[in-house]
């Protein structure tokens, strides 16, 4: 279970009436984000979700300053991306590409991780490099070419590159896509372990297990706008939003929902706690509003299934 983080009121990023789109070869403008306003605060772990093409990557790139909106403003800690190049924004924002191999440019992971802090002569740069390599458990592979690492190691390696920038805002694009299940669980655990040391992080993802176990806030994009802005628990308890955004909740959440548990449980530990009779020994305090006795009743009543 992750430590509870209380977001502060301190705004790290602000999007004000942002509209963005891309021109087709015929010159027609295809809108992607429409009049979107949003604030991200210190202490938040934000999951950006929505179907393919919903605009998640576009939103992350706007936050890095790699692209500027066609209209509206994007500010990172008060700095408007129109007036500050992505290179200058890199003092504050780190963006991890969906394909980690795009982030390995040198002949060793250590050099890639050191590129920003050593290149910019940040104080304690060499120590930072070793520290972040240890944080992602890749110290032993520091001399390897990043491109030669396994899929899971590449993800953690690209995470180390981002962490070494000591960003105020860390943006990750689909950090668990195309990983096998154990590498994916490992990546989720690595992100969870970092939670206390990140000021504000945004993860664009289809991985609802990651959303359920890591995020404090979920922003659902649909048709270029924010369809919902809520906690993972509230998201998975609202089947209409889940269906409209074509999300697939974690299986344990689906099972809990089918058994009538409200709100939906987010992980196995919570599910078990909520299905355990009150007098049975339990390590976890159930946040449940339903008990084992309720569940027994639920077996005799039609289950409510989401989606
Ligand atoms: N550089 C680009 N040029 C033209 N169209 C683009 C470009 N990048 C993204 N798009 C289009 O914009 C829409 C949103 O893309 P994207 O932000 O990548 O969505 P997501 O990350 O949610 O899948 C998609 O229809 C995509 O094809
Ligand atoms: Mg994308």
Automatic annotation (TrEMBL):
Q: Which UniProt keywords apply?
A: ATP-binding, Nucleotide-binding, Transport
What is the name of the protein in this document? Energy-coupling factor ABC transporter ATP-binding protein
Q: Specify the ABC transporter domain's residue ranges.
A: 13-248
Protein family: Belongs to the ABC transporter superfamily.
Region annotated Disordered sits at 277-307
User: CDD domains, alphabetically?
Assistant: ABC_cobalt_CbiO_domain1
GO MF annotations in UniProt: ATP binding
Q: Which organism is it from?
A: Ornithinimicrobium faecis
Please name the Pfam families in this protein's record: ABC_tran
């Amino acid at each position: 279970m992750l430590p509870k983080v209380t977001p502060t009121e301190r705004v790290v990023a602000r999007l004000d009436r942002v509209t963005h789109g891309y021109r087709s070869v015929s010159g027609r403008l295809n809108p992607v984000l429409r009049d979107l306003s949003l604030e991200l605060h210190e202490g938040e772990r934000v999951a950006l979700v929505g179907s393919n093409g919903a605009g998640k990557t576009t939103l992350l790139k706007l936050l890095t300053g790699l692209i500027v909106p066609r209209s509206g403003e994007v500010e990172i800690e008060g700095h408007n991306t129109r007036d500050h190049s992505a290179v200058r924004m890199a003092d504050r924002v780190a963006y991890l590409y969906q394909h980690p191999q795009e982030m390995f440019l040198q002949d060793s992971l250590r050099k890639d991780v050191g590129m920003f802090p050593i290149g910019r002569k940040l104080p304690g740069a060499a120590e930072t490099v070793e520290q972040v390599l240890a944080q992602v458990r890749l110290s032993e592979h520091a001399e390897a070419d990043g491109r030669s690492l396994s899929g899971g190691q590449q993800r953690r390696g690209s995470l180390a590159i981002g962490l070494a920038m000591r960003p105020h805002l860390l943006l990750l694009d689909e950090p668990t896509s195309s990983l096998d299940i154990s590498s994916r669980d490992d990546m989720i655990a690595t992100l969870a372990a970092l939670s206390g040391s990140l000021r504000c992080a945004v993860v664009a993802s289809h991985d609802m297990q990651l959303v359920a176990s890591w995020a404090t806030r979920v922003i659902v994009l649909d048709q270029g706008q924010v369809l919902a802005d809520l906690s993972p628990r509230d998201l998975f308890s609202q089947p209409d939003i889940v269906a409209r955004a074509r999300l697939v909740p974690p299986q344990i959440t689906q099972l809990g929902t089918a058994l009538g548990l409200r709100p939906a449980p987010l992980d196995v530990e919570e599910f078990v706690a909520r299905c355990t009779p009150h007098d049975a020994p339990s390590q976890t305090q159930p946040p449940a509003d339903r008990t084992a006795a309720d569940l027994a009743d639920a077996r005799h009543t039609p289950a409510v299934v989401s989606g």
